[in-house]
Amino acid sequence: MTNTLIYAHRGSKGTHPENTLLAFEEAIRLGVDGIELDVHLTKDEQLVVIHDETVDRTTNGSGKVRDMTLEEIKKLDAGSWFSDEFSHATIPTLGEVLELLKDTDIRLNVEIKNDVVQYLNIEEVVLKELETYSYKDKSIISSFNHYTVKKVSQLDPEIETAILFMELLVEPWKYAKSIGASALHVYVPVAFADMSRKAQDSGYPVRVFTVNDEALMSQLMDLNIDTIMTDFPEKAMKIRDAK
Ligand code: G3P
Ligand code: CA
């Protein structure tokens, strides 16, 4: 028996093209507890769901998201790079994903990408979109940019925020608290450190990315880690069901 939650990382990224509606639909079909996705802003200030700051790796186009309009982005094929059967996939807006989630209780982890390219006011735009779709209560905003995390928590102290980090920090929950964040999103190699247990004992959920190895999934579940984020949610759910 374990209480660990399972979030689909960029949707069901291992089986479908990442950060597309197809990957999110698959995650919903599986009955995951949460979905993680990444957002950037287009030239015309629209929030789009894509991991990289350029469209090069995951579409048939090239260039920076911030230099393209939504109309230009929408013409791109975001599925063929993964497999020909997904050639109809496009880069979704955050609004389209929220529309998909609207009748569910699935937690949405919006990771704001705001480091390689800096987007002025992306924090306000994300909060407004979550408000429009009445999804703030079911959302968590995270970022490797902790100025962004702090800004979100100042703009809206009610929304759950989390710091993303990859190093073994000393008492990171105290630092998180100082900037208004209430959860730790940590890279899997540091998840097994004593830090995680102490953080959870201090009331700070630890959510671990990206856990694709079945043995690691099982070990983290045995530790009752709050959440694992995985590219293979179906695998993780089978392991959890067997406990
Ligand atoms: O939010 C957890 C994880 O997605 C952070 O890393 O590079 O996959 O966005 P990345
Ligand atoms: Ca991410």
From TrEMBL:
Protein name (record): Glycerophosphodiester phosphodiesterase
Organism: Cytobacillus spartinae
InterPro entries: GP_PDE_dom, PLC-like_Pdiesterase_TIM-brl
SUPFAM superfamilies to which the protein is assigned, alphabetical: PLC-like phosphodiesterases
Coiled coil: none
Protein origin, superkingdom: Bacteria
Gene3D superfamilies in the cross-refs: Phosphatidylinositol (PI) phosphodiesterase
Any Pfam family matching the protein: GDPD
Record-annotated GP-PDE domain positions: 4-240
